[in-house]
Amino acid sequence: MSPMAGVSDSPGRIMSRRYGADFSFTEFGSADFIASSHPDTLKLYRFTEEERPIVFQIFGSDAHSIRLAVQKLRPLDPDRLDLNMGCSVNRVAMKGAGAGLLRNPEEAGRLVEVMRKQSGLPVSAKIRLGWDDQKRNYLEVGRILQDSGACALSVHGRTASQGYRGQADHQPLRELTSALSIPVFGNGDLQNYEQAMDLIRGNALAGALLGRASIGNPFVFSPSRHILPTEKIEAARHHLELSLSFHGYRGLFVFRKHLSRYLDFLAPEMRKEYLTEVDAVALERSLATLQERLNGVGKAATA
Ligand SMILES: Cc1cc2nc3c(=O)[nH]c(=O)nc-3n(C[C@H](O)[C@H](O)[C@H](O)COP(=O)(O)O)c2cc1C
Question: What is the three-class DSSP state of 67?
Answer without folding.
Answer: helix
